[in-house]
Predict the 3D structure of the following.
Amino acid sequence: MKLTEKEIEIVELLEKHARLPIDTMAKMVSLSVSEVEDIIKKLEEAKVIVQYATIVDWRKVDGHEGVTAMIDVKVTPKRGVGFDEVAERIYRFPEVKSVYLMSGAYDLSVVIEGRSMSEIAHFVSEKLSTLDSVISTTTHFILKKYKHDGTVFEQGDQDRRIVVAP
Amino acid sequence: MQKTKTYVSDTVSRLKPSGIRRFFDLAASMEGVISLGVGEPDFITPWSVREACILSLEQGYTSYTANAGLWELRKEISDYLARRFHVLYDPADEIIVTVGASQALDVSLRAIVNPGDEVIVVEPSFVSYAPLVSLAGGVPIPIQTSGKHQFKLQPEQIEQVVTPKTKALIICSPNNPTGAVLNAEELMQIAHIVEKHDLLVISDEIYAELCYDEQYTSFPAIDRMRERTILINGFSKGFAMTGWRLGFIAAPRDFATAMLKIHQYTMMCAPTMAQYAAIEALQNGAADVEQMKKSYRQRRNFFVQSLNEIGLSCHMPGGAFYAFPSIQSTGMTSEQFAERLLLEEKVAVVPGHVFGRSGEGYIRCSYASSLEQLQEAIRRMKRFLERL
């Protein structure tokens, strides 16, 4: 699907700030509010815009700190369906946040979130390793999130500029 | 010391302190101010550029460079000018790396001005031009551009002030504070008059990277103008490198040789670490510049349209990051408006008259602030105007 420059601008703006008011956005790209609404609707229908999500720093919420792990999974691809079938079996678990097919030393990269390390350990040993096609797993626990999807978590955003300058 | 004798030179005594200073002091003393008074990008210098500087320090590149600047940087500048603006300068003896475009201006003026020479300054303009002409021993001759022409210099205005003593003309496009951009055709008309009266042109192109609606034309790219132009540019605005203090001059050999004499005696060379950073900026910074430019353009569109909606008439500025709306409908002077807006709504803007007589009735608002700040500033300005 080929997008115009303005359509791309709108997608980029929304990607950074999904709650940007439409009238503000319309001014920024020099279109009318209804034109912007039409573009967004079109892009939503075409699933170019898939979803509007929120980046949450759960560490700040008591009792919701949680644990995230990245698991390298080696699998045997199946004739006819390749990796797709096993990938689907994995991503259907709601605790699995993302699944990527990778080049290199392993096949699938699985990101999983749980309440505790033992919950994740349980998932790996009971659900993931027991799948027929899975040959091996290597689990890496995330110790600290510095930057996620382009957003830096702890950012000092104070303006260091002098107040008035020529 | 006795008070009967004044030790400060007559030239400096006569200089007026910058009109921006008073506002700075007032705004700096208040809490919760949204400042639209800042004449610099809100972006931090791209990380790859900062990282290159750190690397240069780790490697111990801390000594002087050649007076004109690092050879590698001058070559990059030469390539950059050719690539971006289609102007050719020999890195060997036509390019000088300076301490910001400000020093470049100072060196340029001192290199060409004899006592009493007149230099035309197009106002509203950057606050340093006229004082620098005076410090160089010249006489600044202001031209007042008008809101009626979106603050674009009209060629016939030059004819009205030219005298046998006129040596040079300083132009700045895109302009601070008005954002006005002179296109190729308008520059050609100016070039015609410049040639007719045998003038030099100091072309301050520090905002050249921030030109939003049309292809930018560099003055020396106009036919026969290279030989009579001193081109000034730098890294502050386009590359978000204000604090690094790094600019450059590109000029025909004879001028550059003269300017290098002043530069070597007064400055020796520009800061070495900043020069290494600038090499990285020119080699790999284009994508960052493009990204920042896009963001300024979006904020310009939002801010200028919003100003017009709340009743401050404002033309769409073609470049830089300033909106220059008229406040004449309020019946206040620029100074009254700016002061009341600051005290009553805590929004700092710069009154237009500090940039020249024709800036009276206007205010300069920098839109190089976050969108949230701009939205809040518009809300406060709207409230202020409704109360009047």
About this structure: The two ends of chain A are 46 Å apart (CA to CA).
